[in-house]
Amino acid sequence: VRVTAYEGIAPDLAIGVTDRFQASAAFGFFGSSYAYKTELKLGLLRQGRLRLALLAGSIGLQAENDFGLALWGGGGAASVCLDERCQSMVSVAVLAGVFIEHSEGGVSHRSLSAVVSPNLVLALGPRAKLVVEVHASGEVDDPIAIALLRLPFRHLSLELGVISGGRFVVPAGTVSWTF
Predict the structure, then answer these.
(1) Are strands 129-137 and 21-30 parallel, antiparallel or unpaired?
(2) pLDDT tens digit sequence for 52-109
(3) pLDDT tens digits for 51-68?
(4) Do 173 and 9 form a contact (C-beta atoms < 8 A)?
(5) Cα–Cα dist 178/2, whole Å
(6) Quick one: 158 exposed, middle or buried, by C-beta within 10 A (0-12, 13-18, 19+)?
(7) Using H for helix, E for strand and C for coil, what is the string for 77-127?
(8) Residue 154, exposed/middle/buried by CB under 10 A (0-12, 13-18, 19+)?
(9) From CA 58, how far away is CA 39, in angstroms rounded?
(10) Closest Cα to residue 52, out of 97, 23, 20, 24?
């Protein structure tokens, strides 16, 4: 079980149900708006340095004036370990499905879309890691890029870095508790 607090205001709960199955949910309130993410992950293959998994989930944003964006669907993830202990890896995840956009007056638009998320995790020693993620979709103009320095301790992990959305760069920080 892992509980993460993004920026201290957006909790994420991840539960490893079995060695191969994980469920997670995250949400954050930002004034009168909120964002959420849910994910089910089933590990299919763990052979040598290759890892493959199936994904199902959703990601969305609900804002003022009945404006909202959501993607509901499924997909997969592939990871390749860069070292023997799999402390460093390169991965890509794809979540494809129905993209729903709600605007004022109840008007909604539905289309097929996908979010593609490549990432890189590099071990910087026995504990510290550099994490770089990119999340891109055809429905959003600019990809979101995240670069974090992960500092794990026994049951606590700190991540410090930046998030960029093309037009902005903001500092980011998370605290995770594993039990």
Answers:
(1) unpaired
(2) 999 999 998 888 777 888 999 999 999 999 999 999 999 999 999 999 998 877 778 8
(3) 999 999 999 888 877 788
(4) no
(5) 4
(6) middle
(7) EEEEECCCCCCCEEEEEEEEEEEEEECHHHCEEEEEEEEEEEEEEEECCCC
(8) exposed
(9) 7
(10) 20
